[in-house]
Design a protein that fits this description.
Helix 1 runs parallel beside helix 10 and helix 6 crosses helix 7. This protein has 2 domains: about 90 residues, Rossmann fold (3-Layer(aba) Sandwich); about 120 residues, NAD(P)-binding Rossmann-like Domain (Rossmann fold, 3-Layer(aba) Sandwich). The strands form 3 sheets. Strands 1-11-8-7-5-6 form a 6-stranded parallel β-sheet. A 3-stranded parallel β-sheet has the order 3-2-4, sandwiched between helices. The termini are far apart. About 40% of the residues lie in helices and about 15% in strands. By secondary structure, the protein is α/β, with parallel strands linked by helices. The chain is globular. The structure holds nicotinamide-adenine-dinucleotide. Nicotinamide-adenine-dinucleotide binds next to helix 10. The site of nicotinamide-adenine-dinucleotide (NAD) has 24 residues, from helix 10.
Length: about 280
């Protein structure tokens, strides 16, 4: 059986490291502060925002909460972001996505000062990643790099296949694996004969957004499999994009859902906040 990569334990370790850095900064007179903006009351977003605030509290990061009505205009939202950009006491600004459909997400993300873009979604942050400069890294893929490194999984020279090319997971993930010297392939909805591509992978990272789509015949014997997906299955149990029971016996390492990639996203957000300060 494979080694199960324990995202819960690794994320707890990262949050403890952040907590120490936050308290050292506090001792020097610097407070770390994250502004969290939610527009409307999508229940999933409310849960995510609540978890982010809880993590801030644990790490000693002050969180400022802005809960705006569903019908808030794009201009009013951007005016708030401008105000937070100018506020020296705020190190990080996070706008919970998705936004209501009358608001242009790109324009909102671009309004955040790049020095406060702790989600790492802006053109500046992605550009910095692309050319290997310092900058905020998108939290979910950055968390996956930490999972691999802290599990002592060698990345250099490995064949890595990333399934998914979204701006928040697939693309930055591929760039980060490239930066870690993997040989990277990105597979997506138009890829032909997906199993023949994914079977090349020493490290297979799945961000396809389809419950239990990846079965054993997509995976090379001994591969490391990282599952980014989060869904509810037919029994209302959490599951990933990977059919864990089918795939696990073939792997050397695998992330479970829950308790794999999920907890890493918030831990890396906390890490980005302290970096920003
Ligand atoms: P997305 O829907 O934006 O992207 C899915 C990608 O999969 C697309 O690029 C598409 O080309 C590709 N794809 C779709 N069908 C395919 C197929 N049949 N074959 C090959 N490729 C196919 O999703 P996303 O935002 O990147 O998220 C992916 C998954 O990760 C979702 O389940 C999401 O809930 C989860 N997620 C988890 C976290 C976390 O913190 N753990 C964070 C973000 C996303």
């Amino acid at each position: 059986m494979p080694a199960i990569i324990d995202g819960k334990a690794i994320s707890a370790q990262i949050k403890d490291e952040v907590k120490e850095r936050v308290s050292a900064l506090k001792a020097e007179g610097t407070e770390v502060c994250l502004a969290v903006i939610q527009v409307g009351n999508d229940p999933a977003s409310t849960v995510y925002v609540g978890n982010k605030k809880k993590a801030c509290e644990y790490c000693g990061i002050r969180s400022e909460s802005y809960e705006l009505a569903e019908d808030t205009s794009e201009d009013d939202l951007i005016a708030l972001i401008d105000r937070l950009n100018a506020d020296k006491a705020v190190n990080g600004i996070l706008v919970q996505l998705p936004l209501p459909s009358h608001i242009n997400e790109d324009r909102v993300i671009m309004a955040i000062d790049p020095t406060k873009d702790v989600d790492g979604f802006s053109v500046n942050s992605v550009g910095a990643l692309c050319i290997g400069r310092k900058g905020y890294r998108s939290c979910t893929p950055a968390g996956i790099i930490e999972l691999l490194k802290r599990s002592n999984i060698d990345i250099t020279g490995k064949e890595c296949v990333v399934i998914g090319r979204s701006n928040i997971v697939g693309k930055p993930m591929a760039l980060m694996m490239l930066q870690e010297n993997a040989t990277v392939t990105i597979a997506h909805s138009k890829t032909k004969d997906l199993p023949s591509v994914t079977k090349r992978a020493d490290i297979l990272i799945v961000a396809v957004g389809k419950p239990k789509m990846i079965k054993a015949d997509f995976v090379k014997e001994g591969a490391v499999v990282i599952d980014v997906g989060i869904h509810r299955d037919e029994n209302n149990k959490l599951c990933g994009d990977v059919d864990f029971d089918d795939v696990a016996p073939k792997c050397s390492y695998i992330t479970p859902v829950p308790g794999g990639v999920g907890p890493m996203t918030i831990a890396m957000l906390m890490h980005n906040c302290v970096e920003g300060a």
